[in-house]
Predict the structure of phosphoglycerate mutase (2,3-diphosphoglycerate-dependent).
Amino acid sequence: MRRKITPPLHYRRFHPSLFHRHLGFCNSVFFFFFSRNNLSLHSSKLPRFPRLYQIMAAEVFCQAIGTLQSHSFLNNFNHQQKLQNNIVKFVSSRGSNHSCQRNCSVIRSSASQTSVVDPVLSPSRSNPGETSKKSNEAALILIRHGESLWNEKNLFTGCVDVPLSKRGIDEAIEAGKRISSIPVDVIFTSALIRAQMTAMLAMTQHRRKKVPIVIHNESEQARAWSQVFSEDTKKQSIPVIASWQLNERMYGELQGLNKQETADRYGKEQVHEWRRSYDIPPPNGESLEMCAERAVAYFRDQIEPQLLSGKNVMIAAHGNSLRSIIMYLDKLTSQEVISLELSTGIPMLYIFKEGRFIRRGSPIGPSEAGVYAYTRRLALYREKLDEMFQ
């Protein structure tokens, strides 16, 4: 006799109609079973049904998971991981359902935050070969924040949270014009306001007019209070994920000091060594090597999986955290990276394809002459935007 088990509160919160809408027609095929520590699927009746019903059940099961995730019912990472494992077991035990397996891999790669992929880029269902080809390419945009108020005063800034200057605001807007025809599905910034301002201002110029929304995962209450309950609004939004790992390198006891006065005090050679060497930190600060350890690790763990799932990513960050990431992308040596200079407010574009990062340079401004080497996919995206907004 099967023991009756009461689901925990966080599984009882959502409305039953959510299940009925997506699972009503397949009640005879499979049913859910809740336990206190896991969400499992018992499918003992399933083998009695034809192969077609098994495929239908697996597909609807994945749709239900996607619905739960989009409604923020699966925000807890541990519950997501357990549920994802059950999906894979269910699919593999019932035969290969490629679409469901693909959906599971995308859920796994973006467990921290999901976003709706731009429908302008959605491939046609009539050509499955083209779908596979397109899903292997994603755009990566890197933008160093615009000039800050302390840049303007020639002060060491580091991890001090200083906003943009008037010139920095103009640079961020100009950067947005340069990337206005390049798809963006998710944005990563540092925890510092100058990088976040740059990302927000840049997106005001994008032709898709999607609204960037900062994701708050710092607590259960923050997640609950910042939920969006309109599917249409979600489709017109871009998640913005802020992380301290993308912060500028910490300049220690140099922060707030005037750069020229510091050079006069310690000598130009010493200050140049602090600023441009790879492994020598300023007093009580970080070296570029130390900054690279956290920035590159975050890129590998959090950003690269988004690109692998086909999402187009923008990173708005800082000179040293971006130099660290570019060192990883371009496979630069420690000697090559110290001579790398990044201008404020000038976006750089990479294409992630077949596991490789290909640098495409900086997109030209809307009024500039010259040829910019778009990929075929980006060219088609721009053509569709032209058709939509002509």
About this structure: The two ends are 66 Å apart (CA to CA). Strands lie at 31-34, 39-42, 137-144, 186-190, 211-214, 237-243, 313-317, 348-353, 356-361.
